[in-house]
Amino acid sequence: MKNLRITSLLFFFLASTLLAPGCSTPPVIRNRVSAGHVQSVHVSFMGKAKIAKDEWDKAIKELATEKEKTKLLAQDKKVADLWVKIAKMQLERAATVKKLGGAPVGVKVDKSVAQLEKELEAAQAYREFTALLIKFNRKQLDLLKWKIYTAEATSIEEQVLALHKSQNTHAGKYSKLTYTDQTYRVRRKFLVAEEKMGSLAAEVKTLQKQIEATWNPTLVKSAAGPASPAACKPCTPCPDAVPCPRCAGAPGPAELKIVDPPKPADTTDVK
Fold this sequence. Notes:
Helix 3 packs antiparallel against helix 4 (113-165) and helix 4 packs antiparallel against helix 5 (176-213). 62% of the residues lie in helices and 0% in strands. It is built from five helices and no strands.
């Protein structure tokens, strides 16, 4: 019985040790290259390795930006929760005022119950949207993590290829197949994460369009109607036409008058 207890304790200790965080998970990048061996390669062979290193640094910066966005999204979610709470309170108050049937309540409610119901729907939709953005942000962090691993593995692989292309004396210590397999393994996980992000991004875009269609209906601009006559500005008078010098002295058609012929002289004798 004593031996059984010792065996059980030993088994429990071994199991807890193997399942401890960080002990059972191997590192993502298992194969690396000595920095001294990399520096011994001429820079002309390190073009692709440098491009991969730049992508690596860029992905690290993207991850830092996305982590800062996490804080902002958490704040937006708190604001959305508060907005829903306020919208519910306003709706309950409006319903109570309506039941009073015109009795004085101190503060007049300018919005109808139907309008407040729409605002509550918009607030709930926005809260759902913020929650979805938080989920999207978490997936984005995971995607960027694998993007960093992929860029790092690619950079290391290109360093090994540069060692072999330059026929470096240290090239025999590194198998090209080993580092190619490492890059493939990491990139495959990155592509899986990227595929999941595609479907989630479509869901975010769909919900965003729904929110924009009903966003704050009280502030929607009405269609511009015909302008009133009073709003019209007087037109600037046209400049006077300059007459032709040759025709300046000639009378116009309206100025012509019909002249009666002269009457004959009176020939009657004067008596």
